[in-house]
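Customer escalation, tier 2.

The customer says the design service returned an amino acid string that "doesn't look like it belongs to this structure." They asked us to rerun it and document both sides in this ticket. The original structure tokens are below, unchanged.
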């Protein structure tokens, strides 16, 4: 049998072998390129993951930081008087209308008209207040810090004010407006010095500060 006849019968001629070698080379080249692409994608994904972790750590770190707190400024009233404690009811900006009492006053009576959210006033503290004072029976006003546009300060429980104030203001909270109905014996008495009212008195007191 001749070589030509053998090539036709087996299909393994020189041209067919060359084509297969070329095909194998192309396949190997494509496989190498695919591998490189996979490695490139994996590298890119790893880079993205690292960036995401860094960003996450930064966000968590920043989230844990707290902005420095600024001290709350005292609340103001129109005209600048009075200066109210933080969170106080704006009603304390207005002078209260105080009427006369009803019935016989037999003892000290402290009635919160507005309850403040500040700390309770304790004996020995310096307390700053606005007030209006009237005669209990007639409702006639005899004194008010509002007239002077200036609150008063005193040390509670030291006899700096009448006994009705020393007793009635204890435990009242800063930011409160308190009505004090005070019998004569805890006020200025039945026969007070000149310039002071006699008999039972009513005060409406705004607690502005205690320290």
């Amino acid at each position: 049998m001749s070589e030509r006849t053998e090539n036709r019968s087996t299909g393994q001629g020189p041209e067919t072998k060359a084509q297969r070698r070329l095909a194998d080379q192309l396949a190997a080249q494509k496989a190498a390129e695919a591998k490189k692409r996979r490695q490139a994608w994996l590298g890119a994904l790893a880079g993205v993951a690292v960036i995401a972790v860094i960003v996450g750590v930064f966000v968590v770190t920043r989230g844990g930081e707290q902005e420095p707190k600024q001290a709350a400024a005292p609340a103001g009233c129109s005209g600048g008087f009075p200066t109210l404690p933080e969170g106080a009811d704006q009603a304390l900006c207005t002078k209260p209308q105080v009427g006369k009492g009803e019935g016989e006053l037999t003892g000290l009576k402290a009635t919160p008209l507005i309850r403040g959210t500040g700390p309770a006033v304790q004996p020995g503290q310096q307390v700053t207040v606005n007030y209006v004072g009237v005669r209990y029976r007639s409702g006639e006003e005899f004194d008010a810090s509002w007239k002077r546009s200036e609150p008063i300060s005193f040390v509670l429980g030291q006899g700096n004010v009448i006994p009705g104030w020393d007793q009635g203001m204890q435990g009242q909270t800063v930011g409160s407006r308190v009505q004090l109905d005070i019998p004569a014996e805890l006020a200025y008495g039945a026969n007070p010095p000149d310039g002071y009212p006699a008999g039972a008195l009513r005060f409406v007191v705004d607690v502005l500060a205690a320290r």
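Tier 2 assessment: The sequence is consistent with the input. The chain has two domains: 3-64, 78-210. Confidence is low (pLDDT under 50) at residues 1-13, 48-73. Sent an explanation to the customer and offered a walkthrough call.
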